[in-house]
Write a structure and sequence with these properties.
With 560 residues, the chain is an alpha/beta fold. The chain is built from 21 helices and 17 strands. It is globular, with a radius of gyration of 29 Å. The protein binds one RNA strand of 77 nucleotides through α2, α6, β12, α12 and α16.
RNA sequence: GCGCCCGUAGCUCAGCUGGAUAGAGCAACGGCCUUCUAAGCCGUAGGUCGUAGGUUCGAGUCCUACCGGGCGCGCCA
């Protein structure tokens, strides 16, 4: 609808140029928006204001010229010039029937669009290392990343979801040593306890399972514990597989799935790490100093050069990272988004610098990043301190079990990723009006309940009828229709700007309008055409609620 | 010290990429259930958009400098 109004404005501008009413000849970016103020119409444009400068005329005079040149349209009731030179559009009631028939026609597809043109995009998220269960920070990443994937999919992108993890390296050795210590019965206060050992209770459980020679399966690989306490490699394989399986179970419970898991160790065994190092050296972006190999990352915007190969011969973490991302590029992903915690934001410059130094034709801003800020957990009015090593932290699993999947997902995406998030467990658990999740789901369940009631009274499933839909003219009904008309645009904006929280805001607003409508109007009445029209309107609301909740990975219950 | 993010009602946060008189929920106060789910609705009150400049027809939104909070600045990942 907004797009149609926008076209009218552009046509008016073009017409003014054609008959020399206006002379600058350049169509400015025409912005049409829904005015905040009720009296300012259904849509408004500032076209006259932005034309004032190049035309050197008063905005109001230009606005008048534009209005005079707006083509005939069955949509328009009237057009007004207001304020400094805004043009306000008032649409006919019948114009909105188009929105309703469109929602019915598109159904589950309403809100979807084709901006992506079917091009491939890869989204990497969560990417937790297998050194412990997923915690609440991973949860936010999982919820935001998964919702972003759904948004990109809905806007015409071919999405590949990927999870990358480090299954070698110092942290994993540390993990294996911790399990080994537990196998030996060494406690964390023992001098023999490894320096930065993992102290969580799950380490004890891993040791027990290892000694019991259990078999675990993760990422399509099976690992059987040898039970040999001296075999650190066997312990490593078993611990990694066990923790990966745990994480997968948590993610499955969260309804988050991946297409591909990438292992850091494979970057070494496949020779990709060595190959990247060679290319960087050949491109003369490296030098040796103090027994280490350095990357001249300062040539590519970094604030200091970075060590690639340590004096002990091993590589720093970012070398496989560059190799991994080069691989993404070579796999044909012209667009890649990495969703990760903001505490790792320093990797961005490094990875991009490394990729530029490889000189593989990768654009400057590639890959894109979506960073989320920290999560603070509140319980009983107090902050729950997170300490991974001490093992005292809230896991994603605990949260899902305690709060429920729907509420957990909703809360995690409810805020702008840039904002720190306070996760109030007590609030999320409440099944009361304080809780926005239930507010939105309740709207859906309420409508379904009305439908059940209507069916009992012999009303057929609602269908679109222009004549009866013209009866939908109360402020509450029109507000619902107008908000629904903007759903596809909201989805497109959320996807384009990586802002999943727009979904939750929108759904809360839509649910609010419905509840207001419900309390003021009776749907099922003796007036059959009106009843039919309202049932049809509500079937559209159900579609939009369901589509929106679907993008969030949240259920739309029929009853509550 | 340097880099990134944040600062909007008592609290938690929106503010659609620069538009018209800055919004919602909670908390407070007052109303609404013999009628499709009261897990709901309506109303009242609540603001120097951290501060000071700047850019322009127009700034919560963009620029600069400060103040305050978070995160990061490793031959850890």
């Amino acid at each position: 609808m907004k797009e149609q109004v926008r076209r009218l404005v552009i046509q008016a501008v073009a017409a003014c140029f054609a008959d020399n009413t206006l002379s600058s000849g350049e169509i400015p970016p025409v912005v049409v928006e829904v005015p905040a103020q009720e009296g300012h119409g259904d849509y408004a444009t500032n076209a006259a204001l932005s034309l004032a400068r190049p035309e050197k005329k008063s905005p109001r005079a230009i606005a008048q010229a534009l209005v005079d040149h707006i083509p005939e349209s069955s949509l328009l009731e009237r057009v007004e010039i207001a304020g400094p030179g805004f043009i306000n559009f008032f649409l006919k009631g019948s114009a909105w029937q188009e929105t309703l028939s469109l929602i019915e026609e598109q159904g589950a597809g309403f809100g979807r669009s084709a901006q992506g043109g079917g091009k491939r995009v890869q989204v990497e998220f969560v990417s937790a290392n297998p050194t412990g269960p997923l915690h609440i920070g991973h949860g936010r990443g999982a919820a935001i990343g998964d919702t972003l994937c759904r948004l990109l999919d809905a806007t015409g992108w071919d999405v590949t979801r990927e999870f990358y993890y480090n299954d070698a390296g110092a942290q994993i050795t540390n993990l294996a040593l911790s399990v080994q210590a537990r196998c030996l019965g060494v406690e964390s206060d023992d001098p023999r306890w490894p320096a930065d050992g993992y102290q969580g209770e799950y380490i004890r459980e891993l040791a027990r399972a290892y000694l019991a020679r259990e078999t675990v399966e993760a990422d399509a690989r099976q690992v059987t514990a040898t039970g040999d306490i001296d075999d650190l490699e066997s312990i490593r394989l078993f611990a990694v597989a066990s923790l990966r399986r745990e994480q997968d179970q948590d993610l499955t419970a969260f309804d988050v799935r991946f297409d591909l898991y990438s292992l850091e160790s494979e970057l070494y065994t496949s020779g990709r790490v060595e190959a990247v190092v060679r290319r960087l050296m050949e491109n003369n972006h490296t030098y040796e100093q103090d027994g280490a190999l350095w990357l001249k990352s300062t040539d590519f915007g970094d604030d200091k050069d970075r060590v690639m190969r340590k004096a002990d011969g091993s590589y720093t973490y970012f070398v496989p990272d560059v190799a991994y991302h080069l691989g993404k590029w070579e796999r044909g992903f012209v667009r890649v988004v990495n969703e990760q915690g903001a505490d790792h934001h320093s990797t961005i410059t490094r990875v991009r610098a490394g990729l530029q130094a490889v000189d593989a034709g990768i654009p400057l801003g590639w890959p894109e990043y979506l960073l989320h800020q920290m999560v603070t957990v509140m319980r009983g009015g107090e902050e729950v301190k997170i300490s991974k090593r001490a093992g005292s932290y809230v896991t994603l699993r605990e949260l899902i079990d305690e709060v429920g999947r729907d509420a957990t997902r909703f809360f995690f995406v409810m805020r702008k990723p840039d904002s720190q998030l306070i996760f109030d467990i007590d609030l999320a658990k409440q099944q009361t009006l304080d809780n926005p999740v239930y507010y939105v789901q309740y709207a859906h369940a309420r409508i379904k309940s009305i439908f059940a009631n209507a069916a009992e009274k012999g009303f057929f499933p609602p269908v679109f009828r222009a004549a009866s839909c013209s009866r939908l003219e109360s402020p509450e009904e029109l507000a619902l229709i107008k908000l629904m008309a903007g759903f596809p645009e909201m989805v497109a904006g959320a996807a384009a700007s990586f802002e999943p929280h727009r979904l939750t805001s929108y759904l809360q607003e839509l649910a609010g309008l419905f509840h207001g409508f419900y309390n003021k109007n009776r749907v099922i009445s003796d007036d059959a055409p009106l009843t039919g029209a309202r049932l049809f309107l509500l079937s559209c609301v159900v579609t939009v609620l369901k589509n929106g909740l679907g993008l969030l990975g949240i259920s739309a219950p029929d009853s509550m």
